[in-house]
Specification:
The longest helix is centred in the C-terminal third of the chain and has 23 residues, at 147-169. It is globular, with a radius of gyration of 17 Å. With 209 residues, it is α/β, with parallel strands linked by helices. The protein has a 5-stranded parallel β-sheet, with helices on both faces. 52% of the residues lie in helices and 11% in strands. It has one domain (5-195): Rossmann fold (3-Layer(aba) Sandwich).
Amino acid sequence: MKNITITIARQYGSGGRTVGKMLAKELGINYYNKELLRLASEESGINEDLFLDADERCRTIGFFKMPANVYTGEILGPDSKDFTSFDNLFNFQAATIKKIAETTGGVIIGRAANFVLKDYDNVISVFVHAPQDFLMEQAGKVQSLEGEELEKFIAREDKYRADYYEHHTGCKWTDAMNYDLCLDSSKLGFEKCVEAIKAYAKVRFGDDL
């Protein structure tokens, strides 16, 4: 199955992004994280800065205190006053995610991609998590924080991801029923997380992988 798509949701510090990069390299498929914003911009004709700004704004203005707006596949056109609203920008990102799954495939980080692609047969959805001490250790390698401040930073990042996911899906981010695989990176390490995903894909797709 040449267009296999693997979505990876992850706790901050769990190494899910690293696992995704390693997996994409081993499978010889594309890796998508922030690149999705550029692609969505190109597809929609909306300036990429608006996508980037939306990501930052929703972290600071309490956007997710608003009622959930579960993604249905609808995209508002340029004649709508909500054409560049946060929710419609998500709709364009979701359309880009679907296009990837329908064409080249790849590894997609975050963006509620598992929900967007829940009806696609060629998709594997993964959630990477770890205990707090492991998250602290890994986060401390890239953040100039420590102790309670680092712990608060991780909690804020994960709350943002959980709120983002719930707003767009109506589901709980950490609910194992939303994923094919839930992997504890502290027990497996990053390389064995990659091997576990590949093993699952082999069982599911056989020689098509």
